[in-house]
Design a protein that fits this description.
The structure holds two protein chains of two kinds.
Chain A lengths: L11 H28 L6 H9 L1 H29 L3 H27 L2
Chain B lengths: L16 H32 L1 H10 L3 H30 L5 H27 L1
Helix pairs in contact in B: 1-2, 1-3, 1-4, 3-4
The chains are: A mainly alpha, B mainly alpha.
């Protein structure tokens, strides 16, 4: 069962649930940001933009969003690789790359707000 | 055991609408994975300084970059709508049957194309 080592959850049901919850979080965040950009369309200035992301709640929401995004991508790409990449060694390498990229993106999003 | 004929020539198989909806969901998902670093980079630059914010804004004057962003948002629109179909099937058992599944797939196609057209008009004009 080497393939299950690179899945996110301990079992398929956990992956299933995380996939759906993370999808809803990503969608909610997307609609909020879309609404914000539409309301300020035409005169979205640097000050308004920094003002939004200086808000502590927005920072936590954004990191939450990135976390949901990478968990969603991790589980989704794991399914895709499991189905189409038949050579185990290549599949494992691809899955490890996705996991490393996921961790990198979360740390990056934290670092963006660290200096703000 | 009797050897059954196997047809794996993908170009000769007529895929049902549900299969096409599924593979497009996967393709758009893979595309969106590559959008993550682009978006994080844009967020990082736009928040660092006013010059950075102007740089990210001016990228939208570049047709190539604008096309990339357009493609990412189109992939997102499709992925989102196909995802809602999954949630309807999983939580409320809507569109799970053989016939309703096909109808659901067509609704996803029509809705996505409509939204992509509306979005594209606002984005390019």
């Amino acid at each position: 069962m080497i393939s299950s080592v690179t899945s996110f959850g301990k079992n398929g049901v956990q992956d299933w649930l995380v996939q759906r919850v993370s999808a809803i979080i990503v969608a909610l965040y997307f609609f909020f940001l879309l609404g914000f950009i539409c309301i300020n369309s035409g005169n979205l200035s640097y000050d308004i933009w920094v003002g939004l992301f200086s808000n502590r709640f927005m920072q936590i929401a954004t990191i939450f969003f990135v976390l949901s995004l990478v968990l969603h991508a991790w589980i989704g790409l794991w399914s895709v690789f499991t189905d189409y990449v038949k050579i185990s060694s290549i599949r494992i390498i691809l899955e490890i790359l996705v996991i490393l990229a996921s961790i990198f993106y979360v740390l990056w999003s934290i670092q963006i707000f660290w200096s703000l | 055991m009797k050897k059954r004929p196997v047809n794996l020539a993908l170009s000769t198989i007529k895929f049902p609408s549900t299969a096409i909806a599924s593979i497009l969901h996967r393709i758009s998902g893979v595309i969106l994975f590559f959008a993550i670093p682009v978006l994080l980079c844009a967020l990082d630059c736009s928040l660092q300084s006013e010059e950075g914010f102007m740089d990210v804004s001016s990228f939208f004057n570049n047709t190539f970059f604008k096309f990339i962003v357009w493609g990412m948002i189109c992939a997102f629109i499709y992925h989102l709508i196909a995802g809602v179909r999954h949630l309807l099937m999983d939580f409320w058992h809507i569109g799970e049957g053989k016939c309703s599944g096909k109808v659901g797939a067509y609704i996803v196609f029509v809705l996505s194309v409509l939204l992509i057209i509306i979005f594209s008009i606002g984005f390019w004009l």
